[in-house]
TrEMBL record:
Name assigned to this protein: ABC transporter related protein
Taxonomic superkingdom: Bacteria
Coiled-coil regions listed in the entry: 562-615
MF terms in GO: ATP binding; ATP hydrolysis activity; DNA binding
Domain ABC transporter: 4-257, 326-540
Gene3D superfamilies: P-loop containing nucleotide triphosphate hydrolases (3.40.50.300), Valyl-tRNA synthetase, C-terminal domain (1.10.287.380)
Biological source species: Mahella australiensis (strain DSM 15567 / CIP 107919 / 50-1 BON)
Keywords: ATP-binding, Coiled coil, Nucleotide-binding, Repeat
Signal peptide: none
CDD domains membership: ABCF_EF-3
Presence of keyword Glycosyltransferase: no
Length: 617
């Protein structure tokens, strides 16, 4: 079933075309990834679909009453609510029905069993069941936990949340509403890897259609069955996930260039023939020239391939450092009695490439700040190898002066370079012409990220500490960074939740946990396989560098307990359904004593069910 169709959508801002003649169709169950360079018009397209922006031309069709949910940058939350109450506001209709059912149950228990009351209760009960009313609270808990909220955060006021937490609440609330068309703009921002994997699973099983703007290639591989590629105002549709799209696009670019060259050669050949015929200046040759000219004019011209601006750079270590590049020993850090890092021990040899992963708030950025001498540890020590020089990339870009221009920022960092050399470096990172005179305060997140990387390049550091370096970068810039790091001959320690990036650059994974750190050899896929081999019983290294393995029986017993709870939930839900059916029977609701017995049992089972939902979640 078609849920959305567009024909000829175009949009310009001033004299600059953003989208031209965009046409596509979205079917129920489609999972569509929207990709393209920063500024290509991806978010503009979503806003046009939702009606926030208006197209200059074209039409949008939505057969039937298609419900649309849009995750905007402005979360639109009621900050007076708790996290739990804000999430439950997605079920206002269900809660209203539940409240009325409880009122009717009390009336029936008191002997008010007239036909109107029972008829209303039966109708509401059917509606409540149809809307999955008996599971909305457990469903809400599951979504909150899946998105990385702990149960003790459920009662936290929305107004006290960070920007990232508010975005997660807005995302969770939108998922609970289950619109037929779900529009998500960078939904994995502010999610750690575990929460991103949960979202992937949720969207894979989502019955409606999904359109998602993302730079997370791993995420799009897991979720998407189509890719919409927006570039140079045009859109091309590719079937398959991101990796399939990337391969097809490479083939398309090569073939398009060949087709263009062949057509240009043929046009040139035909034009030479036409010119030669005309030069004969005879009636027959002139007619032949005119005939060929008409045929040439009818040819549908292939547009000259537009070369997309791209970054290409390299990091080169000027000096070879010691073999023992970094040693972290029993490192701990607390903020106001809250332990962030606990007994972290690991080491890196020269040339190793390590990726630090872990849940949000576990201390990944704190670890890098301590190594970079930006923070003091509470205990433990850091040993940097002899002749090892650190370059640090801060995801907040705190090292950039907002009052300086792009040119001033880089030139002040390297005053011995000529202005020409500074401009050449900036041009590599796509700051050309008057762009270098922009104030840093006016730069986008992607531009700031590129400038911060540009500041690292000339120094020749032989160890790089990178904190979420792919944030704000579009896919082509991420690929350029990956290429630069693959060829880098120094030591690398990078914090990232970009699994595609980690796969490309890492040969060792450091997983931070509340108890310390666990070390895995290989890239992200290797880590995932090792971590989940034999239900997680095999780990190649452990907290505080002490080898240990979790007993498999622990996971087995947990799984068995979960299955027992699920079975008990099903049994109680079935019994509740039987009671509700019985309470609608005239022979029962006219018997006050029997009705009170059923109502009491119903209330007791509802309480038990909620307790089981808590355990299961």
């Amino acid at each position: 079933m078609t849920v959305l169709e567009t024909k000829g959508i175009s949009k310009a801002f001033g004299s600059k075309d953003i989208l031209k003649d965009i046409s596509f169709r979205v079917e129920q169950g489609d999972k569509i990834g929207i990709v393209g360079p920063n500024g290509a018009g991806k978010t503009t397209l979503m806003k046009i679909i939702t009606g926030i922006e208006h197209a200059d031309a074209g039409e949008i069709y939505m057969p039937g009453q298609c419900s649309i949910g849009y995750l905007s940058q402005d979360a639109g939350l009621d900050v007076k609510n708790t996290v739990w109450d804000e999430m439950l506001s997605a079920f206002n209709e269900v809660i209203a029905i539940e409240t009325r059912m409880h009122e009717l149950e009390r009336l029936m228990a008191d002997g008010q069993t007239d036909k109107g009351t029972m008829s209303e209760y039966a109708r509401l009960s059917d509606q409540f069941t149809h809307l999955d009313g008996y599971s909305y609270e457990s469903y809400t808990r599951g979504v909150l936990i899946g998105l990385g909220f702990s149960p003790n955060e459920f009662e936290q006021a929305v107004t006290t949340l960070s920007g990232g937490q508010k975005t997660r609440v807005a995302l969770g609330k939108l998922l609970l509403q289950k619109p037929q068309l779900l529009l998500l703009d960078e939904p994995t921002n502010h999610l750690d890897i575990e929460a991103t994997q949960w979202l992937e699973s949720f969207l894979q099983n989502y019955a409606g259609a999904v359109m998602v703007i993302s730079h997370d290639r791993y995420f799009m591989d897991a979720v998407c069955n189509k890719i919409f590629d927006i570039e140079n105002t045009m859109m091309t549709v590719y079937d398959g996930n991101y990796s399939r799209y990337a391969a097809l696009k490479r083939e398309f670019i090569v073939q398009r260039a060949k087709d263009y060259d062949l057509q240009q050669k043929e046009i040139k050949r035909q034009q030479e023939i036409i010119d030669r015929f005309r030069s004969y200046n005879r009636e027959k040759s002139i007619r032949a020239a005119q005939s060929r000219q008409k045929a040439l004019d009818r040819i549908e011209r292939i547009d000259k391939p537009v070369e997309q601006q791209s970054i290409s750079f390299a990091f080169k270590a000027r000096q070879r450092g010691a073999n023992d590049a970094l040693k972290v020993e029993s490192l701990s850090k607390s903020f106001e009695n809250k332990c962030v890092l606990n007994d972290v021990t690991f080491e890196l040899k020269r040339g190793q490439r390590a990726a630090v992963i872990g849940s949000n708030g576990i201390g990944k950025s704190t670890l890098l700040k301590i190594i970079a001498d930006q923070l003091e540890p509470s205990s433990g020590r850091i040993r940097i190898g002899q002749n090892t020089f650190l370059g640090y990339y801060d995801q907040e870009h705190a090292g950039l002066n907002p009052d300086k221009t792009v040119l001033e920022e880089l030139w002040d960092a390297y005053p011995l370079l000529s202005q020409t050399d500074v401009r050449k470096i900036l041009a590599v990172f796509l700051f050309k012409g008057d762009d270098v005179l922009k104030r840093i305060n006016d730069l986008s997140g992607g531009e700031r990220a590129r400038l911060a990387l540009a500041k690292l390049m000339p120094a020749g550091y032989n160890m790089l500490l990178l904190d979420e370096p792919t944030n704000h970068l579009d896919i082509s810039a991420r690929e350029a960074l990956e290429d630069a790091l693959k060829d880098y001959d120094g030591t690398l320690l990078a914090v990232s939740h970009d699994r595609y990036f980690i796969n490309k650059i890492a040969d060792i994974i450091l997983e931070l946990t509340p108890d310390g750190i666990t070390v895995y050899e290989g890239n992200y896929d290797d880590y995932w396989q090792q971590k989940h081999l034999q239900d997680g019983s095999l780990q190649i290294s452990v907290t505080s560098a002490k080898r240990r393995a979790k007993p498999k029986t622990e996971n087995t017993s947990q799984a068995a307990a979960s299955q027992d709870i699920e079975a008990e939930i099903v049994t109680i839900e079935d019994r509740i359904a039987e009671l509700e059916a019985a309470m609608c029977d005239p022979d029962v609701y006219t018997d006050g004593q029997k009705m009170r017995q059923l109502t009491d049992e119903h209330a007791k089972l509802k309480t038990e069910l909620e307790e089981l939902y808590e355990k299961w979640a």
